[in-house]
Write a structure and sequence with these properties.
Number of strands: 9
Strand content: 35-45%
Strand order of the largest sheet: 6-7-8-5-1-4-3-2-9
Largest sheet: 9 strands, mixed
Helix content: 10-25%
Mean pLDDT: 86
Low-confidence stretches: none
CATH superfamily: 2,3-Dihydroxybiphenyl 1,2-Dioxygenase, domain 1
Length: about 140
Amino acid sequence: MPSPALRRNRSIPDSSVIPVLGYTDPRAAATWLVQAFGLVERLRIANHRVQLSHGDGALVLAQQAAATGCSMMLRVDDVDAHCARARAAGARILAEPTTYPYGERQYSAADFAGHVWTFSESVADVDPADWGGELVAPPR
């Protein structure tokens, strides 16, 4: 579970660390992962993202041209301060902090080895239906 300071938002899993796996067809991948590994589909976002859960953990399947590697998503208390710290440490900022309609303020950075990290701060509790998401399983 995230730290008690993290705001709850129905549009993102409660997990503090959320791996993001790339698939050419996230919905087909979700169907397979549910059937093969017993994961639970939590949220569909058009045809380009699916959130899955397992126990108290979560992961996101994201559409990519090829199923190569993965990126990491971590929830933080203050995304702007976190971005400033990462920049000062030499991280290459790929996307500046931005507030999205689904209630998250996020930025992305590449580490020294080129791995992509997205950091997310919940700024509002937004019903996924308000921005086009389809909640499949209720939040725990």
